[in-house]
Design a protein that fits this description.
The protein has a domain at 3-140 and 246-357. The two termini are 20 Å apart. It has 358 residues and is mainly α. The longest helix is centred in the C-terminal third of the chain and has 37 residues, at 321-357. The chain is built from 16 helices and no strands. α3 (27-52) packs parallel to α15 and α3 (27-52) crosses α16 (321-357). The protein is globular. This is Flippase-like domain-containing protein. Pfam families: LPG_synthase_TM (PF03706). One of its GO terms (cellular component) is plasma membrane.
Length: 358
Amino acid sequence: MSGSDSERTAGAAPKLREVLRTVRRPKWRLIADWVLAAAGVGIAVWRLAPTLATVGESGRRLAELRWGWVGVALVAAVLSLVAYGELHRHMLAAGGTRLGFGTVQAVNFIGNSIAQTVPSAGSTAGVAYTVAAFRIRGVDTGLSLWASVLAALVTAVVLVVLGPLALAYDGLIPLAAGWALFAVLAPAVWVAWLVLRRPKSLHWIAHAVTAVGRHLPVVRNAKWVAGGSRQADAVSERIALLRPTFAQWSGFFGIALVSWGLDYLTVAACVAATTGAVPWTAVAAGYLAVQASIMLQVTPAGAGPAEAGLLAALVAGGLSEPSAAVAVVLFRSITWPILAFAGWLVFLGTAWKRATRE
């Protein structure tokens, strides 16, 4: 990371409190989020605890882990998150703004930590921080919003469109059904994008979002909402100018595919660490169950349904319940608290750099 990049990164640290202030929720929503979080954790414990047996049995299973595969899982998880950051960086470059690798990755890791650990409105706060952090680094509001939102949409589209093919390849659904779903989803996504990228559509969407945002406590204090129709026009006009080439779009989807592939490898490595063999069909089904739980956001980070779905898939694939439970705990520990902890370390590091300069 260059000196100028690190200075900008450090300068973003004090903005976290301001970002979190803009995503405050009413008390009833906070209570609902905490109840859902507690329910999710309760479901996970209910499903996993009996299979882990006694403390001594759990200790024996941990001692029997193949630590080389644990290392592979950890590296794959980190690289998956790095690939997601690279998706942001390439989108910013397509919009005419180039930021350093280290700068974008710092924002990416911190944004992920906020999304994964803030107890209420975590996903919103993570996006808000990412947009604010890019703006601090000189990226205009339209491009910041475009890159932050589009990165999430592209990764979601890749999973949704290719998911049926993966299930068909593993024999979980008929091959004809998998291709039929793909044939329907892929053109639908393309048509939706052609409609949404039209200047008139963007103009209408920007005004609609701004109008709704004025009534939402989550975003009503944000400058792009408080600025009214004039700000909405400026943002929509800026986004309308963003027209990546076919090669750039191919790069976006390629990076998203690499990110998902590395994440999938993380699950497989966790299973290999516990059993030495990988039931690929079961891993694919369990992985899609985890991602569906996270995307639906019924509970924070999909807690509960994600663990239950992955455990059920692995057991159905032939793993013993204790081995499957260890693999689930290992995977979720790496991709949730461990990566979140790494992001908070990055945040503390940037804050410390700023403090030493003042």
